[in-house]
Amino acid sequence: MHLGRVIGRLWASVKNPGLESQRLLLVQPVMADLSASGQVLVCADTTGAGAGELIYWVRGREASFPFLPAEVPSDATIVGIVDELHLGEASSDPDSPLPPDHVRRGQRKG
Amino acid sequence: MTLGRVVGVIVATRKDPRLEGSTLLIVKPVAPDGKEEPGYQVAVDTVGAGNGELVITVTGSSARMAAGCKEKPVDCVVVGIVDGMSVDAPR
Hints:
By secondary structure, chain A is mostly beta strands. Helix content of chain A is 0%, strand content 37%.
């Protein structure tokens, strides 16, 4: 699974029948330090994630498993919203290579 | 899934029998701002996409789960035509 940031959403009225009624979100994959990494993806969503939220997503054939027994042709699906991310241990060490705000909370809205 | 723009169509008379009747499109991957990304994809069309349209493609074995592609030798399928997008958060 991979970390990502939801950066927007996408509408498509003409879709393969397998994708009917699926929410499609634009996701920027990010590294553990939350820097952007790679191309923006279109992900199906099982969590109700919103714009700006840190999520994790699964790629490949497994991305269709959350929808079973429905056959949804998805190769990238959001399967969780990150509440907290703890990276490393030395939070108070000024010489730590980690960014000072290495513990971040998700930005749930509403 | 990835965003792409249809830039061409492929005509092939000799192909796997299970691909007969399928339209093969050339899709150029693009970013949400419309900027082209490197590379091309050859994708089977399931939605009737036309030249210049912004589409969603699904790749890998998930592509075979698309309606109309069961048990076909495909690994890239156009599964949607994009009507609109909203980019709310900075990248």
